[in-house]
Amino acid sequence: MTQLDHARATELIMRRGPQDLAPGDLEWLEAHLESCSTCAQYETDFNNAGQLLRATAIIASPALVNRTQARVRERAIYLREQQARTVLIAISFCLGAMLSAVSGWMWWRFGAWIAEHVGLSLAVVEPGVIVFLLLPAIAVAVLMLAFPHSVLESSVVGALGREREGVRQ
Amino acid sequence: MIATAFSLLAPMETEEAQIASGLRRRDPDLLDALIEQYQHRLLRYLVHLTGNRAVAEDLFQEVWLRVLEKGHLYDGRNRFVTWLMSIGHNVAIDYLRKRNPSSLDEMRDPDEGVPFEPPSHEPSPLEQAATHQQQQMLGEALEQVPPLFREVLVLRFQEQMKLEEIAKLIRIPVATVKTRLYRGVQALRPLIRGGVL
Lengths: 169, 197
What we know:
The complex is a heterodimer.
Chain A: H1 3-15, H2 23-35, H3 37-55, H4 62-118, H5 122-146, H6 149-168
Helix pairs in contact in A: 1-2, 1-3, 2-3, 4-5
Chain B: H1 2-7, H2 15-25, H3 28-50, H4 53-70, H5 80-99, H6 125-143, H7 147-158, H8 163-170, H9 174-193
Helix pairs in contact in B: 3-4, 3-5, 3-7, 4-5, 5-8, 7-9, 8-9
């Protein structure tokens, strides 16, 4: 009987139960256990350890389960709302980008038409159109520079908080 | 309730696929049903892992919140219970590391909480006392086994998991699972032979 035989027997003892052993393995194990007292003792200890573990009863209280279910449900609703909001923001962004591209192209063409009919140089009209397109962003940048960040942030956070309260009510 | 939750889903899908689909949708009814179904098994695992009932109850809630948030990562190809326990394992390990990053074995405070409870049937006061005493002895006996070994013992004997499932759950090689199982049984040997059973 070699060390490998003992190692194989130990592994088969560990595997038996949750999975079905092949008939050949099972037969070999039974034969080995009959002839090897060390492995037979290990099997007894192993089975007793299983009994010991299964004898410990730990039960979740209904209060814990209810509390968990309530927390999970609340969080699930919040995440679903957030997901829906993210989808709306993504759609709005895509629509905004498309409209900006189309309107930008139209203004560019209009600038070219003006330059052609009024006789202005393209070197003047094209930068003018770009400045005109960027005007809203420039206005926002000026506003942000004019007012401290905390004012803007608090007003945005306040608005979001009021919106959230409104949703809850 | 569980049957109702599952019957609302496509009948041709396997149970694991139905759970995966429900978790992707963050279906609150399905989550309720899953919490009901796995409450005792998850709590038992966490109690054995942390050695503290109160901590295990906190982690129990944390695990389910993580199931909700990471639900889209469950693909339904493995058993749900294995995935759930792996989340439980990660949450518990995170907690234990935060408490003491040096060694998992040293992180348990044996004076904290009462780890094991008697079952919730209604026996006579004498039976209750005997059961309580036995549970206490078992709890104390198990507390002497290092958490790393106890975890593998719990998964093998209480959850009836295969060695490969345990290895996948804890993310260790099967050989390490066998070593821990072997040493876990060895650690219990004096208690078993000492007549705790």
